Automatic annotation (TrEMBL):
Protein keywords: Cell membrane, Membrane, Transmembrane, Transmembrane helix, Transport
GO BP annotations listed: L-valine transmembrane transport
This protein's record includes keyword Transmembrane helix: yes
GO cellular component: plasma membrane
Recorded name of the encoding gene: ygaZ
Top-rank taxon, per record: Bacteria
InterPro entries for this protein: Brnchd-chn_aa_trnsp_permease (IPR011606)
Organism this protein belongs to: Jannaschia aquimarina
Signal peptide: none
Protein name: YgaZ protein
Record has Transport as a keyword: yes
């Protein structure tokens, strides 16, 4: 009965290698931005989304209006809506409390692992799929919060030579790379990357939102034509 849970733990463990420097980096940057320990930990525990947290933090440091900070963070996290929609066929029949827990722990890593495994294990029922998901979250969530705490406590004492910022692009490359299975996926990834670089001059990182919308439109159109 625990096979799915144990497999989830095993599959989630490799992400610790990426999550630790990622979380430490956010803790350090949050401290440098003026957030105290309680604010930093609440940020990581409630949002649980490194990309949107770093985006919001950067905009706060730039003195961007609160509405822009919130809009940008929400735009970066819009992918969670799509994640949730694709999880419904697998765990949508679970109880309300279980679905609430899954939505709280739904991040890039737990989603990518779960969806790929669900497609291969069509023999699993809803309960086994839920156990697998919770297994993937067990190493990911405590690792994220714990590493954020370490970064916030250590702060500027971490040498710049460690270059912890390498973890940010590496984390998403490790997730996105294996998922580029169709022409639409590849086109969307290319447009988003090219658009983000071409529109980097737009203030408050609003170019990311424009690039993301363009990428989704291109991917959707290619899928429509393929169908």
């Amino acid at each position: 009965m625990r096979s799915g849970f144990n497999q989830g733990i095993r599959d989630g463990m490799p992400f610790v290698v990426i999550m630790v420097p990622f979380g430490v980096l956010f803790g350090v940057l949050a401290t440098e931005a003026g957030l105290d320990l309680a604010q930093t930990m609440a940020f990581s525990s409630l949002v649980i989304a490194g990309a949107s947290q770093l985006t919001a933090l950067q905009l706060m440091e730039q003195g961007a209006p609160t509405a822009i900070v919130i809009l940008s963070a929400l735009a970066v996290n819009l992918r969670m809506v799509m994640y949730s929609a694709s999880m419904v066929p697998h765990v949508g029949k679970a109880g309300p409390g279980t679905r609430g827990l899954i939505s709280y722990l739904l991040v890039d890593q737990t989603y990518a692992l779960s969806v790929e495994t669900y497609e291969r294990r069509s023999d699993w029922d809803v309960a086994e799929k839920v156990r697998y998901f919770l297994g993937t979250a067990l190493p990911v969530f405590p690792c994220w919060v714990g590493s954020t705490l370490a970064g916030a406590v250590l702060g500027t004492r971490i040498p710049d030579a460690w270059s912890l910022d390498f973890a940010v692009p590496l984390a998403f490359l490790a997730l996105v790379g294996p998922m580029l299975k169709t022409r639409a996926h590849v086109a969307a990834a290319f447009v988003s990357a090219a658009g983000a670089m071409a529109l980097a001059w737009i203030p408050w990182n609003l170019g990311l939102i424009v690039a993301a919308m363009a990428a989704m439109a291109v991917g959707a159109e290619l899928e429509r034509r393929a169908e």
